[in-house]
Amino acid sequence: ATYNKIYILKKLHEERIFHSVLLLDSDAVIVDLDYDVLKLLPRRYLFVANKVFPHLDNHTWDINAGVTAWNLRHRQFRRVVTRWERRCLARMQGGHPGVSDQGPLHKGLREDYTDEERRTLRVVKALGTKHFQSQNGTFVTHFDRGNEIPKDWSEAGGTYFVPSTERVQKITDAVNKVCQRWVGACDADSSVRQ
Description:
Blueprint: H1 4-15, E1 20-24, E2 28-30, E3 47-51, E4 63-71, H2 77-93, H3 102-111, H4 115-120, E5 124-127, E6 140-142, H5 165-181
Parallel strand pairs: 3-5
Antiparallel strand pairs: 1-4, 2-6, 3-4
Helix pairs in contact: 1-2, 2-3
């Protein structure tokens, strides 16, 4: 499922129905249904994501790929997504058991573009705001793994992990809050029960 983002992007790009899309990892929850995410995606940029480290510049390759908003009509779309796909496929075909799509995306942004090209071609807009910021996100709360698992979980020899009960409870609580605040947006079955 980790690599599904690439195929979702490719399908939406081919269909030419939408101009943009917000992609979320399964451990991310939209917590403000009134906010217009398109305010964060300037039309001239390929995609926006949160910086991994706040001190990095706004065109860094070091972004969190778990929450991204994409411009499906950007001139660099095919180049970035096709090369991202190739890197992921090579990783899998090479017997690499890791499941990270973020590493191959980082590698593409770092190796296929200079810092200046990322800036002038407007490939990535790395946010330093709280909109997508981990568990403090004001638009999307992303319950990332933190220290739950070893750093090598996505490397060869890394092992599958089960999220902690505490992390699952935090996600459950966030979904329930959204369903309570925006009652009409949630089906009767949308609230997470235990």
